[in-house]
Amino acid sequence: CYFFTIEFGLCKQEGQLRAYGAGLLSSIGELKHALSDKASVKMFDPRTTCHQECLITTFQDVYFVSESFEEAKEKMREFAKTIQRPFSVYYNPYTQSVDLLKDTRSIENVVQDLRSDLTTVCDALGKMNKYLGI
């Protein structure tokens, strides 16, 4: 799915076809081809898209389009949940990386970060309520 999203992804925006894939955005020839009536465009479904062959020396045989960029992200998240693996993953906004949650220690670290964030939010709410007289 990576190849047909991150590299060659298409989505609709205000009813028009838009490219968000880096491979399309960096190749005017491929971009023109993908947006032309010569290209085969199918609706994005990760379960079928992941089986599509990726071409590296020619234009793609098929491109996949989502109703929106948000829809593509949500479909990928749901698809990722179905992948069998002995761990979970967590996006760490502080390091801008994906952490593996593979043991109790790594999960405890995430919980500690969440507690800290919730404490900050609760403190801010308390100050706002006090300021507003609530």
From TrEMBL:
GO terms for cellular component: neuron projection. InterPro entries: ArAA_hydroxylase, ArAA_hydroxylase_sf, Aro-AA_hydroxylase_C_sf, Aromatic-AA_hydroxylase_C. GO terms for biological process: aromatic amino acid metabolic process. Gene3D superfamilies: Aromatic amino acid hydroxylase. The keyword Repeat does not apply. It holds the Pfam family Biopterin_H. The keyword Thylakoid does not apply. It comes from the Eukaryota. Its cofactor is Fe(2+). Residues 1-129 form the Biopterin-dependent aromatic amino acid hydroxylase family profile domain. Fe cation binds at E7. Keywords: Iron, Metal-binding, Monooxygenase, Oxidoreductase. One of its GO terms (molecular function) is tryptophan 5-monooxygenase activity. Signal peptide: none annotated. Belongs to the biopterin-dependent aromatic amino acid hydroxylase family. This is Biopterin-dependent aromatic amino acid hydroxylase family profile domain-containing protein.
